[in-house]
Amino acid sequence: MTNSTLIRVHHNKENPFVQLNKKALWDSNLSLKAIGLWARCLSRPDNWEFSVSELSKSCKEGSRSLYAAINELIANNYAVRIQTQKLLPNGKPSFDKLIYVFFEFKITEEEKAEYLEEFKKCFPLCCFALPQNATQLIKSSTNTDRKKKKKKEKEGVPPTPPAHPTSPKIKRRDHVNTTAQEHSHLLELHSPEKVEVFYDTLNEWKEDTPRSKWKKNDSRSILRWVVDAVDEKAKRKGETNAPIDNRAYAEKIAKNYNLSVGPRKQVRLTILGDRLEIVSTCPTASILPTTIRYKENGFVDQVETALRKWRLK
């Protein structure tokens, strides 16, 4: 029976082993968690790519705990974090991915600088700051741009004109504005009279609709739904067909409703010489009759509105 408190195995192909520098294992500046992460990473092949998400799947540590251990190794010069970048189509750099490099020994600041120079040759678009996340760097860059802009304004430097200046919008109605180009485009598609109707329709809709539902581009709203709404309204009025005989239309409506819905609702539609009247047949009702003359514009629409008002539709 041996007195040893460490039981080892014979190291061979059947019992794989790892050779590591002992200094990091006994570095008093490192926690056991950081040492364990360091040892696990160095047990992998040289071309292995470190991934926090993959590593967290093979151990009980979560991502936050692993990042804390990584930061501890970086602070003690056992690892470096490389933020690689890529060029966007507009020529500006953008964050790409993070690469971690682990050392078996604790490097000095001079050695670290030499290694970083070598890494820069492999990754031309990279930075070696130790960001908590990319958003902080972007925010810092934005704040720097703002400070430069304010400094230029104080020094009297004229602001840089926008790359694509927008045309001024012209007021067509109280709540409808379009640019000259947008107005010309509408005229190419529709007659001037029709475009004026589009402006009126959109303006009426905005007057009856909360501002929060308004769209920013009035021309786009016209092309998307106003044109269809105007055409549908014209179709209902019969403007695209032969003129409707308003009296004949009123007689047809009165006949249908007086035989069906009217008696139940205690409402009667009466055909007179120059007008249609909708009256209540209830003796105790105090509702005034609705009168619509045949010669009035929009007679059909007025009849439809009156029927809804009297709850006949």
Structural overview:
It is a single chain. The protein has three domains: 22-137, Arc Repressor Mutant, subunit A; 169-237; 246-309, no CATH class. By secondary structure, it is of the alpha+beta class. Strand 1 (79-87) and strand 2 (93-102) form a beta hairpin. The chain is elongated. Helix 2 crosses helix 4 and helix 8 packs across helix 9. The chain has twelve helices and eight strands. The longest helix has 21 residues, at 134-154. The chain is 46% helix and 13% strand. A three-stranded antiparallel sheet has the order 2-1-3. A three-stranded antiparallel sheet has the order 6-7-8.
SSE inventory with pairings:
Layout: H1 22-25, H2 32-42, H3 52-57, H4 63-75, E1 79-87, E2 93-102, H5 109-122, E3 126-127, H6 134-154, E4 169-171, E5 177-179, H7 180-189, H8 192-207, H9 218-237, H10 246-259, H11 261-265, E6 267-271, E7 275-280, E8 290-293, H12 299-309
Antiparallel strand pairs: 1-2, 1-3, 4-5, 6-7, 7-8
Helix pairs in contact: 2-4, 8-9
